[in-house]
Amino acid sequence: MLPPLILHPFSDSSGPGRLVESSRASLMLQGLLPSGELTTNELERRLLDGRYCELRMLFYVGRDLLRWIDQCVDHAATQEGLAERALKFQSFAVFLIENTPPKVAAKLKAWGVADYKAIFMRAIGLNSVFAEAPERYQLSDEFIRHYYRYADHLYFCRQQATIFPSIDAEEFDFDLFASGEYTRMLEQEWEDRQ
Questions:
Q1: How far is Cα 128 from Cα 124, in angstroms, rounded to an integer?
Q2: How far apart are CA 168 and CA 135, in angstroms?
Q3: How confident is the model at residue 123 (pLDDT cuts 50, 70, 90)?
């Protein structure tokens, strides 16, 4: 059994509103919705604000994923029968994204995360470049507009940086928790011990 993957909340209070505005602005820029009195510049700003919000959210998801993957690598290195396989970061990244245990995939889908593979890849990709969440002024509009393409390529670059052994879906199991859910579970265990 691997350590649990704990995902922390990553949205500020204005995040959902910005994401909706960004989606609407994108549709308006494509001519699929009427733009009303909004100028092209205003629509572009809304689009970029939402994309930047997405980028920040993915960055923080990536922090949780990197923490979990590092824990898995450490765990495997200390286990008899696994240490000699020399499982690497990339091994566990592929395991999480491509060979996701069914119960973890089901929980993500129950949370409404339909395309978790793309989200996890992009989150890891962004964390491969940024040590801290970048400020808006540090990024070009071009990067923000197409950040998801850059993040996809960054993930693949990291994966191709070394040769690594693969992990089959049935080799390991782990639990997935939202941080609040995990905290409540620990509190309940603590109360049960009292």
A1: 6
A2: 38
A3: very high
